[in-house]
Amino acid sequence: MILLTPGPTPIHPRVQEALARPMRGHLDPEVISCNRNIRSLLQTLFDAGEGALVAALAGSGSLAMEAGFANLVSRGDAVLVLANGSFGERMAEMARVYGLEAGIVHFPPNAPVDPAQVREALSRKAYRLVAMVHGETSTGVINPASEIAALAREHGALFMLDVVTTAAMLPFSMQKLGVDYAFTGSQKCLSAPPGLAPFGLSARVRASLTGAQSWYTDFRRVEQYWEKEGYHCTAPVLLHFALEEALRLALEEGLEARHQRAQELYAATLAVLEETGFSAYAPKEARLHTVLVVRPPANLSEAEIRRGLYCQGIAVAGGIGPTAGQVLRLGLMGEAARRENFSAFFRALGKTLGVTGLDLAFEERLTAATAS
Ligand SMILES: *Cc1c(COP(=O)(O)O)cnc(C)c1O
Predict the structure, then answer these.
(1) Cβ 86 under 6 angstroms from ligand 1
(2) So what's the pLDDT on residue 370?
(3) Which among 119, 167, 301, 342 could bridge 163 via Cys, Cβ 3.0 to 4.6 Å?
């Protein structure tokens, strides 16, 4: 099965091998050394700066999202959540669960977050934290992270950014952007197995932590394990081995090169899909290159297309939230974003639709794009 879903993603043979290493204890010197390597690689990935806490929680990306609301603010604090899709809505739900006074600004799902509206919301009321998703997976829309970061700072609020669909596939710097807390999930752009949620917490926020509304994700306890090398809870060490290798692979290739790989594949794939009658969901100026969301041709249902592809060994996703039942979502994250995977996708799509030559059209476009 070729996983072309927006997570989980296919894993590289080197990562698969790391996962099969013999079991060790969570405080075994080999694991401690692996954890040190992970921290140093995450420092590069997030560019979190000196004194920042970089580590990985044992859980999926949503756990790191929760950890932000549990650690950065206290019950009753006002937080501003910017939502233009399912994952923005998830942030709003969590803010409520943690007893925060959540102001939510909703934006249309097929448009990016609008800085003018955010400025207005921030000028009406003081917020302790602004939270936003960088790349909205439900719609394939990318949000203007640096503008929103600047607005948050200008208004004295902390800025929490979900970089689940962007970190490790797009160049990123917490310091340059002005992000206080960023997180991802191991199974997305890093192409590691699911189960770990890497994050970066800026030095300035770290210094002001007063106490978390969660024991498990309390950053001061997490730090006990990752930095002081003591016991907090039993770490999934085999996942640590796999994450270390996946981080190495990503940084060996380089984030610029990975971004280019996703961009070129995105453009060639979308062009051929458009010629076949599909249309892009996200507007031209705000396309997230790691998640391609398309509406099927008028006479076809997305569910039928997905079934046809699945029978031929290609897994893609349907819509969720605002796009449920309306679109196909293709992941171009990590190891998914390879020429051979998308050639196979177009071969299978051609058979499903009864059209020939889609894979050749794709190959030609991609070759032309990568040659120029
Ligand atoms: C996948 C995803 C998450 C986390 O989801 P998990 O299933 O908990 O890993 C969070 N935000 C975005 C934008 C995502 O795509």
Answers:
(1) no
(2) 86
(3) 167
Q: Residues with Cβ < 8 Å from 150, sequence gap 6 or more?
A: 178
DSSP 232: S
Q: Which residue's alpha carbon is nearest to atom 6 within ligand 1? A: 61
Pocket test for ligand 1, best of 90, 137, 141, 166 (most atoms within 8 A of CB): 137
Report pTM.
0.98
Q: How far apart are CA 158 and CA 164, in angstroms?
A: 19
Other beta carbons within 10 Å of 226 = 22
CA 84 to chain centre: 15
pLDDT per residue as tens digits for the range 308-333:
999 999 999 999 999 999 999 999 99
Strand partners, 54: 200
- State both tokens at 260: 């280019």
* The pLDDT value given to residue 165: 98
Q: How many CA atoms lie within 13 A of 102 on its CB side?
A: 22
Closest CA to 98 of 261, 267, 211: 211
Which candidate, 362, 344, 319, places its Cα nearest to that of 136? 319
Contacts of 74 (CB under 8 A, 6+ apart): 210, 211, 213
Residue with tokens 């994250």: 333
Estimate to the nearest angstrom the gap between the alpha carbon of 246 and the chain centroid: 15
CA within 13 Å, CB half, 28: 15
* pLDDT (0 to 100) of residue 177: 97
Task: Report d(CA 128, CA 71) in Å as an integer.
Answer: 12
- By CB atoms closer than 10 A (0-12, 13-18, 19+), residue 10 is buried
Closest ligand 1 atom to residue 187 Cα is 9
The length of the chain in residues reads 372
Q: Please tell me the distance between residue 76's alpha carbon and the centre of ligand 1 in angstroms.
A: 26
DSSP designation for 167 = B
Segments in the chain below pLDDT 50: none
Report the distance separating Cα 167 and Cα 135, nearest Å.
10
d(CA 70, CA 301): 41
Burial (Cβ within 10 Å: 0-12, 13-18, ≥19) of residue 346: buried
Q: CA 337, CA 371: separation in Å to the nearest integer?
A: 18
For the Cβ of 290 lying below 6 angstroms from any atom of ligand 1, the answer is no
